[in-house]
Amino acid sequence: MENKISRKKILLTGASGTVGIETLQHLLEHTDYEITVFDLKNQNSVKKLAPFRSRVEIMYGDISNRQEVLKVAQNKDVAIHLAAVIPPLADIDPEMAYSVNVRGTENLINALEKNSPDCYLIFSSSISVYGDRMKNPQICITDILQPSPGDQYGETKVLCESLIRKSKLSWSIFRLAAIMGNHKISKLMFHMPLDTPMEICTPKDTGRAFAKAIENQKKLEKQIFNLGGGADCVITYASFLDKMFAEFGLGEADFPQKAFAEKNFHCGILKDGEDLDNILGFRQQNLNDYFEMVRKKIHPLQKKITFIFKSIIKKWLLSQSEPYQAFKKGNVKKMNHFFNQLEKEKLENVLF
User: Fold this and answer.
1) What residues does the NAD-dependent epimerase/dehydratase domain cover (predicted)?
2) How many Å from the N-terminal Cα to the C-terminal Cα in the chain?
3) What is the mean pLDDT of residues 97-122?
């Protein structure tokens, strides 16, 4: 009589998100994994997870509800925790961000400690925990954690990391660079200074890293790593915007002075990002791959229509710029948040 090979039981939270879907697809390449996904039930998550119904166990619920989390955390070997409220919603509704991100993580830790004490927890943190790095963009995991003022998301991630490190579980924390995927244009685009050096990583490569971490637990556990795309994925924010605007048919990102903040955001270059890739070998894409992916998603007709209305669209976008509105209205408190100190004469010259 043949011995049955025991299948690793994997729990994936936030599976319908940009990184979650990619992680799920990479996990499904392993026939020896028994996968349970846990996500909030809404139109978007049901639609995205529908193609996987026959291959994974889908459980819907609220991660901030302790009882619901207890149900999905039974007899799990690995938990990949991606569920989170991200910006701009995290900044708009900080209470929800705290409830989902911090309380949700605490619920998951408690549930796993109770029902799956030997479980390996892999957590997605963020580069936002380092805060504003304009003066020193080279980032290492040993750097001080200091989210920018008002960055609710970054603050929740710092709290989550602390909870995980104090837990009784085996764990790894990946601090993610700018994961460029299905980003919608929002007022947040004006919060990042144009000369910010940013390192991106594609959702596919990020998902690959989380999936590969399972096989490399011994090399990763009880450690924190920075996760980014590497040297081939570094670009300034100004160049990134110009390329994106061109792809969408918006021409140049030619906004007036003071449309973009000069400080109090995040991003930078992950100086020790090679450490994780040396273990996992997850990097397979670069900036060219990313822009090609963007290009394929934009219908030629959509691009033509956007080009015709580009002036109106850019005017509307500018109206969403909080730094620009603060500058125009002379809101000193907000100007101090978004801008470096300016001479009075310079202020008067720029106002119009």
Assistant:
1) 10-184
2) 83
3) 97
